[in-house]
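Researcher: Next entry in the queue.
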Amino acid sequence: MTDATSRDGSRSGSTAQPVGGAKGPDELRRQIEETRGRLGDTVEELAGKADVKGRAKARAADLKDKAGAMSVQLRSSAAHAGHAGHAVQDKAGRAGHTAQDKAGRARDAAERHTPSGRARGAVRAGLGHPRAVLAAGAAAGVVVAASLVRHRRHGHC
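Model: Structure for this entry, 157 residues:
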C-alpha cells in the first residue's frame, strides 16, 4: 500500500525514481501523476476495506447465490430419489401380487388333491384359521404323549 522512503530518497518496493531525481518539469509532472494514481488506488482499497456494510451485502449475495444453487441440486436429487422410490414400490407391489398368486395356486392344488368334500372344507378352514389348526395340533400331541406315558407306566411297551 504505502512505500517507505530510504535515506537516499528512493522508495522501497516501488519502481519510482528517487524523489529528488526529476529531470525537468515534464518528468516531475509525470512522477506526480504516477503518485496520484498509486494514491488513488490505495485510497480506493482502504475505502473498500472500511465499507463493512458493502462487504457484508456482497457476502450475503454470494451466499444467497450458493444457497440457490444448492437448493436446485437438492430438488433434483430428491426428484431422482422419488423416481427410484416409486420403482422400488412398484417392484414390492409386483412381488406381493406374485406371492398372493402362488398362495392361491397352492390352496387350489391342496383342494384338488383332497379326496372328499369334508376334507376340502377342513383344508379351507385350516388355511383361513391357522391359529386354530395349531391349537388342535398341540392338543392332539398332548393326547398322544399322555397315551404313550400311560402305556409305558403300565408296561405295555
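Model: The two ends are 113 Å apart (CA to CA).
Researcher: Noted, moving on.
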